[in-house]
Amino acid sequence: MTIQQVATEAGVSPSTVSNLLNGRNHRMLPETRQRIERAIDKLGYRPNRAARQLRTGRNTTIGLVVPSVGNPFWGALARHLESAALAEGYHVLLCNSERDPRRERDYVDELWADGVHGVVLCSSLPSLDHVMPLVERGLQLVAFDRTSQAGDPASLVSISVDNAIGSQLATQHLTDLGHRRLAFVSGALASVNRKERYRGFTAGLEQAGIDPATSVRAPVKGDADDFGDVEASELGRAAAAELLALEEPPTGIVAINDMCALGVCRGLRDGGLEVGKDVSVVGFDDIVLADLYAPTLTTVRQPMKEMAAAAFTQLRSRLDDSGPTQGQSLLFRPELIVRESTAPPT
Amino acid sequence: MTIQQVATEAGVSPSTVSNLLNGRNHRMLPETRQRIERAIDKLGYRPNRAARQLRTGRNTTIGLVVPSVGNPFWGALARHLESAALAEGYHVLLCNSERDPRRERDYVDELWADGVHGVVLCSSLPSLDHVMPLVERGLQLVAFDRTSQAGDPASLVSISVDNAIGSQLATQHLTDLGHRRLAFVSGALASVNRKERYRGFTAGLEQAGIDPATSVRAPVKGDADDFGDVEASELGRAAAAELLALEEPPTGIVAINDMCALGVCRGLRDGGLEVGKDVSVVGFDDIVLADLYAPTLTTVRQPMKEMAAAAFTQLRSRLDDSGPTQGQSLLFRPELIVRESTAPPT
DNA sequence: CGAGGCTGGTGCAACGATGCACCGCATGCT
DNA sequence: AGCATGCGGTGCATCGTTGCACCAGCCTCG
Known about the structure:
The structure is a homodimer.
Chain A: H1 3-10, H2 14-21, H3 30-43, H4 49-56, E1 61-66, H5 72-87, E2 91-96, H6 101-113, E3 118-121, H7 132-136, E4 140-144, E5 157-161, H8 163-176, E6 182-185, H9 192-207, E7 216-218, H10 230-244, E8 252-255, H11 258-270, E9 280-282, E10 299-301, H12 304-319, E11 328-332, E12 335-337
Parallel strand pairs in A: 1-2, 1-3, 3-4, 4-5, 5-11, 6-7, 6-8, 8-9
Antiparallel strand pairs in A: 10-12
Helix pairs in contact in A: 1-2, 1-3, 5-12, 8-9, 10-11
Chain A binds a DNA duplex (30 and 30 nucleotides) through helix 2 and helix 4.
């Protein structure tokens, strides 16, 4: 089914069909228009994307680079982003970087070579230097789950939840319940987001009149490489054991994310404590699993659907040329979801 | 960077460059070849996919249609499939059907219109009639997690784990531990796979000399619509409550999948029982979560990586025209993974 | 010595959609 | 009368790659 066949069927020239297809139909006779429309769905015509892209240089595919869709958090993003894109006739090309910087760059290169002009990048890297050359050539980049930084390209859009506030909400929730000895469990504070979450934690403590110095940050030994996802739970488990060995173990624990929190729960249980009774645990993200675990996990929800929709909208408006060329930073408001894993200290 | 520029740089015609690029270099002077190769990476040339596809009608993108990448099981598939595809220079276009048959069909249509000739379809539907028209036009289809059926297109490749064996392994594991009162928890046995799993369950019972009639299948009230993923856990939880209300509750439970199994664990705990001690539970799939839950879940592992690789290989060989045109069914061997959720009956 | 074969390439017409330049005609303006 | 303007479309070159048809030059062989 080519545009030529449609044109023949409708008794017009291919140009006219093209005009209609591309909204240049201001001065087209309604009658002509209807003839074409009838021909189109009589023949079941769909424009050939390859031809269209070859001619225009544009396309309707955006790239999504995530650490791993095996992780429910990124899976959820993929799902929502795809949903938003689909509604506008866009497609999503999925790429798993496996947290390998090189693979991340290769993917973005590949996408660019394929004519993809917009990419949602969920980078684990603090710097975006590796993709700068393409950004300079016009690649539109949306950084997800990563607040913007000094060296970032001017056109960059950053989309993230307000990590400091989220973390503070979690902490406050614990102090409101009466907890006074708190701990923050995380790997190395290597990314901006992690630092922000820690900042929220200390802010929450201060607000409750607790000296952050008396709180624990575990594990201290976390190094810069522990960016893993599944490993986050291992880390949480180990950290829990460490905390239990203290003379005065904390009664409330704020974890860097849900996976980590689940690991902490696991570790606490290993140590004979009951989460949601003897100890309280708060996570971050609100992955589906949080509501399935036993006990269900109190956590800080990221409005994924809205964030994904925003990512797409931003990208699209910039691809449609009309959008602002200037970068910006979108911070979403996190929401505390209280479930069973938190309770007043006993 | 066009092929023309490379040709000029190398002092040959575009055709010659194209010949090299497409492996038609049998009778090419090694010297010419090197000149071209040098030109290519001097200019950093990458062939334009749109142009190539327009000309040849082929492309290197395959489609993946899953119910939802939000579900870790499908996320894992996406990850592994993408990995296999990447190694051969192929891309994966991700589509979430959200278990909506119409959306599923629309996606496949869309992919076809985009020039995608190969799709891995993880359909929740027993029949594939809705995509038959495209298959007849040449779409290569690999059905994943769905054994082939009578009405399927002749060219269809089906990839699945051997569900009957898997389920039998799970059942056998319980009987070997000494359990005699078993239950099978599932929604309606609406899909072939589910029926197979139930068949494996009864086979396992018979092998242990237990009359399947004495075992329980819960919930009886499951209807055909309960195909959900998150809902699977709700279903498990409800089923557990139901089972506990029996006069002689089962001591061993085989769940249709891991999510359902986790729901069952949840329900049992609600009823005051300790999983892995008072009751044993076995799942199916071995999602990442199975090893994180408390207690860790004994389950039947599907060799996802191998299955995903096979899906890609099958698709590719058929897309490269050379492959067999005849459909086939690949059944993978499941593996029992024993963890903490199973123990001898007390 | 001329027909035929091999070698190492090249010429060219597609693939399907796009969008600018342009057309003939009618009407308005001065 | 002479020129601009609006209308409803159409003609055509073009995007980058491909692969069949073809070519000139040289070798071989009866």
